Amino acid sequence: MQFLDPHTIILITGVMGLMMAMVLHSLRRNCPPSVKGLSQWAIAPLLLFIGTGVTALRGGPFDTLSIMVSNLIFFVGVYITLEGSQRFFDVAPRFKSWMTVIAGFWLAITWFTVVQPAYPPRLFIFTFCMMTLMGAHAWLLYRHAPATFSGQLALSVMVVGTAVQAMRCVTSVVLPTGVGVFDRSAVHLIYLTTYSFTILLTTISQVVMTTDRMRLEFEHLANHDSLTDAFTRRHMNEAVQLELDRTLRHGRPVALLIMDLDHFKTINDTYGHQTGDQVLIDFVALVKTTLRRPDQLGRFGGEEFIVLLPESSRESALITAERIRVAVEQAPQPACTVSIGLTISQPGDTLNSLVARADAAMYRAKDLGRNRVEVG
């Protein structure tokens, strides 16, 4: 292990931290607001870079200050990584609790730096704090990380990192620890190298998890209406065609509802477009509560919506349509009624013919007084 130098390992770790902070910062700027935690993930490796710079002051006139400041920076940096993951997975951070824990570890290190200077207990306290923070991070990933490559990579890295810190705690008690962070013993060099790779792989897994989440978010934005979160017309056209193809293979019919909110223009003209937008949002949320899991709700434009009911008979589709009509009529919001046209797939149907029949039935419902269901 003589070809490894602690100064070089610490320097490389800091530089890698700076580079990954730049990568994560760039990702954060290009991410949709719904992807959270990237600010914390970008700050953490930057703090690591600063901490390695402060560590480089060891052995000089600022040795005591370097020990106290660098350890605090490393503690806070590892915690901020944890907080970033909590925000990424929509878990409420426990900032005050963790700051109290970190303050306790830091005060213990300060005691063995200023009052009773001794490296072995400082090393044990440092690694025990790191083990605690990484262990909490590993538990968070175990509970919330997706079963994808990026999620499992992040979990594996954090589990290994926690195990390494636990082993270092043990070795700091049973093996010689040297005199400081720049000790050249084989155990210490292995620990530094492993820690360096843990930091690198942690940030890599964060980058991959972020790109995975961004892909899902952009797919969602491409397939969902930005106002109501109903599916887009393009998605619904594809879904209807897919169900028609499945009907040809299996012979099970598909039902289609086209719905139009009654007198919606009056709502916009009387109360304004913001109120009208909220009516549409409330309508979609209400309709979703009446549908089965395989059913799909889309916005065709304006106040017109479409519902796809796979493998539904005329009778079951009528029940669903009537349930929607009654729910809208009785709800305090959206404070309007809905006219619904219903049709069932027939042999030889195309997307256009199916939609045209449902649309014609919906306009017939309008002509017959609105707030009703008509079958086409």
Q: How would you describe the overall organization of this protein?
A:
- This protein has helices at residues 6-30, 38-55, 63-88, 95-115, 119-144, 149-174, 186-223, 233-250, 264-271, 273-288, 314-330, 351-367; strands at 255-261, 296-301, 304-309, 338-344, 373-375.
- It has 376 residues and is of the alpha+beta class.
- Strands 2-3-1-4-5 form a 5-stranded mixed β-sheet, with helices on both faces.
- Strand 4 (338-344), helix 12 and strand 5 form a beta-alpha-beta unit.
- It is elongated and about 90 Å long.
- The termini are far apart.
Topology, element by element:
Blueprint: H1 6-30, H2 38-55, H3 63-88, H4 95-115, H5 119-144, H6 149-174, H7 186-223, H8 233-250, E1 255-261, H9 264-271, H10 273-288, E2 296-301, E3 304-309, H11 314-330, E4 338-344, H12 351-367, E5 373-375
Parallel strand pairs: 4-5
Antiparallel strand pairs: 1-3, 1-4, 2-3
Helix pairs in contact: 1-2, 1-7, 2-3, 3-4, 3-5, 4-5, 5-6, 6-7, 9-10
Overview in brief:
The chain has twelve helices and five strands. The protein is α+β, with helices and mostly antiparallel strands.
The first-to-last residue Cα distance is 81 Å
Give, in order, the helices and strands: HHHHHHHHEHHEEHEHE
| Strand line-up across the major sheet | 2-3-1-4-5
Rg on CA atoms, Å: 30 Å
Kindly state the mean pLDDT as a whole number? 87
- Share in β-strands: 5-15%
Compute the number of strand runs: 5
- Overall 3D shape: elongated
- Structure classification: alpha+beta
Q: Give the helix level as a range of percent.
A: 55-70%
